[in-house]
Every structure is written in C-alpha cells, then in structure tokens.
Amino acid sequence: MLIQESHVDVPTTAGGKGSMRIFIFHPTLAEYPHAKFPGVVVFSEIYQVTGPVSRFARQIASQGYICAAPSTYHEFHDPSPLAYDGPGTDAGNEWKVTKLLSAYDEDAELAVSTLLGLKTCNGRIGATGMCLGGHLAYRCALDKRVKAAVCYFATDLHSKTLGKGKEDDSLARAGEVAGELVMIFGKRDNHVPPEGRDAIRKRLHEAGVEFSWYEIAGAQHAFIRDELSKGRYDAAVSGVCFEMLKECFGRVLRSDLGERVGGKGEVEDVC
Questions:
Q1: How would you classify the pairing of strands 2-12 and 18-28?
Q2: Strands of 18-28's sheet, edge to edge?
Q3: Cβ neighbour number for residue 58 with a 10 Å cutoff
Q4: What whole-number distance in Å separates Cα of residue 50 and Cα of residue 153?
Q5: Distance separating alpha carbons of residues 21 and 86, to the nearest angstrom
Q6: Angle ∠(50,51,52) on CA atoms, nearest 5
Q7: Which helix (H) or strand (E) holds 126?
C-alpha cells in the first residue's frame, strides 16, 4: 500500500502549556477513497522520531494501518530527532526521567484521540514501540480504547523507574490492560536483565493479562534499529518479530471480534 505522510500539532498541558507534534503515516488506496483503517500509535526510543522509527511506522502503515508517532520530548526539544551519539543519548536519558509520568500519559491519550478523530479510522486502535517506546506502548494499553500492543524490549518496566521521581506504577496497573499484549525481548538484552524479564512476565500472569512472550536467542537491546545500532541490528530476527506484530494486529484490529470476555473454556487433555 502507498503512504501519505503529514503531521499535526496538538496542545498539551500536563508538562506545562505547549504543543506536541504527531507524525502521521497514512495508507492510501486511490480506488477506495472512502476506506477506513485501524490506527496504531508508534512510540519512539529516547531519540524521538528518527529514521529507523519512521521506517518502522511506514512498514506498519503499508500493511493498512494509520500510524501516529508522537514527539515524546516536546517539553524540552523541537520535533526533530536526537542524534545517535553521546550528547543525544545523554539528553534522551535525562529527559526520560525529567518528564512527568502524567505528561507521558497525556501524550498517549492525545495520540489515540487524534487517530480516533480521523474519518478514515475504523475505531480500532493498537500501539507499539521500542525501548522507551516499548514501555510507553504498554502504558498506552492501560487505555481501554487500545485493543492490542506490541512492545519491543520495554525499558524501565521491571525497575519502575520511568518519569520524574523514577517511581512509575506501570506494572502495578497491569490488571487494567484490557487488550492483548505481545512482549518481545532479546535474551542478551542488558537493559532488561533476565530477572527483570522474569518479574514482568510473572506480574502479567498474576494480573490475568492476555499476552504472548518472546525472548530471542542471541538478540541484544535495540536489535530492530537498522541505523547506528552499534552492531546489534538483526534483520532476520526483526522480520520474524514484524510477523508477530502483523499476526496480532491483523487478528485483533482488523477483525471485528467484539469485546473480549474472561471465559476461555477448558483445554482438553489430549495428545
């Protein structure tokens, strides 16, 4: 599918009066001018909407989803991406724990509402993101309007250190996730160590969340970043993970399944 790219600037208040740019990646079918598509919020890593994040959003949009990628650090920086270098990394990590948790949540709410406000959106919303964006996609799924979230190597989720004060409630609120999650990590991800991944998985089970869990052998943090990944980019594994995203979003966002109910039925004990 072909794509049209644009942006909208929406007013914000939680982190101080200002505005946030949301980059829109919209699929187009010339022969179907009244087509409606599901929406997906694409959250970036600590460098804002970089080349790799834009290419990721285009990949999703070309499958028939309207993607909205918010500029996360609008309180501190213009919408342009930070560089994948020392100063860019330092700024991104500093702002990650300077920004208010309520401001992160306002950004997510605004992105979802922006998608739902488009006449070309069919009303079904998903979320995805990598690194910081993986955590933000998870928090976005606390919004009952979000039916599915695919979270790539979500940082700070296990340590509860997102936002100012480094004391987030993301895992504590796991029971509020009404949609389906896909959690993806590399086995060699030193940003989310084995004990951290175990804690996340255990909490999701305890909260009764519907989720899939993938840990890829040999993969490190940022393995889907196809630019300046410091030798960690794995195209083959990234392709497999994108199929997981397509399966989840295709089943949950494209199909009109109605509301999910708790009863799953008993599994028959057969060989």
A1: antiparallel
A2: 2-12, 18-28, 66-70, 37-43, 121-130, 146-152, 180-186, 210-216
A3: 16
A4: 17
A5: 25
A6: 95
A7: strand 121-130
Q: What is the pLDDT of residue 114?
A: 98
| Confidence check: pLDDT of 250 > 70 | yes
Angstrom CA distances, 84 to 95, 221, 235, stand at: 15, 15, 19
Contact (Cβ atoms closer than 8 angstroms) between residue 201 and residue 183: yes
92: left (phi over 0), alpha (psi -120 to 50) or beta: alpha
Tell me how far apart the alpha carbons of residues 3 and 247 are, in angstroms, rounded to a whole number.
Answer: 21
Q: Do residues 186 and 163 lie in contact, with contact meaning Cβ atoms separated by under 8 Å? A: no
**H helical segments located in the chain:** 51-61, 86-96, 101-116, 132-140, 194-206, 235-249
| pLDDT the model gives residue 113 | 98
Q: How many residues does the chain have?
A: 271
Catalytic residue ranges: 131, 189, 221
Give the 3-state secondary structure of residue 33. coil
- What's the predicted TM-score (pTM) here? 0.95
